[in-house]
Amino acid sequence: MRFDLTIRADSDIPAFAELLAKLGLRDVNITNTDRDRDQLADAIRLRERMPEADIVLHVAVKHHVQASADATSSSLRKLFDRAAKEGIRKILLVSGYPRERYNVLDGLQLLQSMGNRFEEIFCVYNPFFDPARLREEHERLERKLSYPFVTDICMQMGVDRHKLTKGIETIRSFRPDARISCSVAMPDAKTRKHLSENPLYGVFLPQSFLQNDEIAAEATADVLRLFRDERVSPVVYMTELNAAGLERILEIERGI
């Protein structure tokens, strides 16, 4: 189980490190929140406090888009070079929303031209779109997986077991060797309230999940059980430092 950390201030870092160490957790994503926050610097500072941390650096291409494609490539190239020099070995590369003309597919082409220096490259896939949008999503997924260095596909957050199962089948139909992970919302009240008031693009969580503690816990246990059976790694979404939420989802995982 991996944990998706959103660091909004320098003071978040020691607090996150202390909580993760207390719970014996080491696998973390550092999310890319905006242009102003240097998430690579955040990853380095977290690693200083947690040398054992297994860090995935989340890179949203939209935060690097400049007036021209060449300038955008230059901005991304500098980040990739810095990350490689700092010993970051795993990158989650996404377009970001709204998707710009220069997007994740251009970023993958750039990585290839640079002679990819990372051990693992993660990309995303959303199995919850309507059929028309899903056709485009499948085309983009196939293009992402055409790059051999893309090792992991992270599915979008959701609790529809049928769509998750179809998503897993689709990924494996393109690349049976690709690893699969999936974003999971912590089912605690604080996280559900945040997602209800600040819905994420492409996330389709039912109101029953967002409004009912028992239903949220049961739905989370169900998808974690599916992921265990299908060898899918959960990536737990954290909006802020939330010890109660972390302990709750770990309790659910232990109980399935």
UniProtKB/TrEMBL annotation:
Keywords: Oxidoreductase. The keyword Oxidoreductase applies. One of its GO terms (molecular function) is oxidoreductase activity. This is Uncharacterized protein.
